[in-house]
Every structure is written in C-alpha cells, then in structure tokens.
Design goal:
Elements lengths: L8 H27 L4 E6 L14 E7 L3 H11 L6 E4 L13 E7 L8 H11 E12 L5 H11 L3 H4 L9 H7 L2 E10 L11 E9 L2
Parallel strand pairs: 1-2, 1-4, 2-3, 4-5
Antiparallel strand pairs: 5-7, 6-7
C-alpha cells in the first residue's frame, strides 16, 4: 500500500512478501486488467515493489514509477530492469509528484489511495500531471457496500488497522474522491479479494478507469 506516506519499514518488508502471495492467489490477473489499454508515457504513483511492471502493454512508451519507501523502491528498481517497457523508479510522494503539468497520457495507482494521508492532495497531483483527456487506472481497497462491514471498516480505521497496514484506511469512498478531483469514471468493477475467503476490512476492492476532465 505504497504512496504519499512516511516510510513504514516493518510493513514494507511484510508487504514485499505478502504481495507475491497475493499475485499467486489471483491478484496478478487484476494487475494485467488494470494496465490493459494504457499507451504513451505513464506515471505510476506508489509503485511499491514493482509488481505491476511486468504487465505494462507494449504501447506504453515509458513509465515513471514513484515510491517513497527505500526498501520497496530498491526491489522495484530490480523489477524495472526486467520490465517489457522502459521504467524509471524514483523517490517521491503522491502529494508532490516530481513531474511537470500535463506530462503523462496515463496514471496508475494500485493499493495507494487507501494509504495516502490526504486523498484529495494525491488526486489533485495526479490530475495536474495528466494531460487533459488522460486516464487514471486504479485498483484500490474501498468502502464496503454492506452496512455491517462498513461499521467494521470504520472501527478498524480508528484503531489498529492503519498501524498494521502501512497507513491503509479501508472505509474510504475512493470512487467518489476520484470524481470530486476532476475525473469522470468510465469503468468501475467492484470485486472481493480473496474470493472465496474470509471477509476482512480490506476485502472490498474496485478496479476502474477515469478520464481527466479539462
């Protein structure tokens, strides 16, 4: 759950391991679908250990991958060397992306908008570095659709969950935040992960594509 946050060294090492198990359990397929259709220059915000890199389509001309955590960034740099498209990895935070206005045709977040301290600031920055009509592809933990699980998420978010999960907050209505930041969502697919499996605060997910408004 990388992105605009302070480094969480213990969680970073845990995430580096558990993300591999998640991919083997089916998350890799969601990563491929997340990145399908991207083209031109792309910025990936909160790249983590770089597990998305292997799935970028050939129409992507380059990827600027931003990751604040040093441990995850080191792993991402190794994965970048094996990517099918050019990937550059650098430090940075979502609230202050190291890129000029309108630089990119596409942006990617995966397990990022749940963990940034300020969703609006992160999305405002993504909006800034995308050209008008550019696309944001997102894969995120989100607020549950059922009242009972929503209550569980709210309780988790004010107690132990963020400390255990690198700042992740499970009860955010991320789709609404994306729209409020100046995007139009064209595709949105809710899903559970793992499914089947135990229902946990981070079980509800969405994968979608949003277009930057002028």
């Amino acid at each position: 759950m990388p992105a605009q946050r302070a480094s969480h060294p213990v969680f970073a090492r845990y995430y580096a391991r558990v993300s591999l198990a998640m991919d083997k359990g089916g998350m890799a397929a969601h990563r491929r679908q997340l990145l399908a259709g991207l083209a031109g220059p792309v910025i990936e915000v909160g790249a983590g250990n770089g597990l998305n890199f292997a799935h970028y389509p050939a129409d992507v001309t380059r990827v600027l991958a931003i990751e604040p955590d040093p441990h995850l960034r080191e792993i991402a740099s190794r994965n970048a060397a094996q990517a099918p498209v050019p990937v550059g990895v650098c430090g940075g935070v979502a609230a202050g992306l190291p890129a000029d206005d309108g630089t990119f045709d596409g942006a990617v977040t995966a397990f990022v908008l749940c963990s940034v301290p300020d969703q609006h600031a992160a999305l405002r920055e993504i909006h800034r570095v995308l050209r008008p009509g550019g696309v944001l592809h997102f894969l995120e933990h989100v607020r549950a659709s059922t009242p009972v699980l929503r209550r569980v998420q709210r309780l988790a978010d004010v107690t132990i969950w963020p400390a255990l999960a690198g700042g992740c907050r499970t009860s955010r209505d991320t789709a609404a935040a994306i729209q409020a930041a100046g995007f139009t969502i064209g595709q949105l697919e809710p899903f559970r992960f793992p499914d089947p499996g135990l229902t946990m605060p981070a079980t509800p997910h969405v994968r979608g594509i949003a277009t930057r408004n002028p």
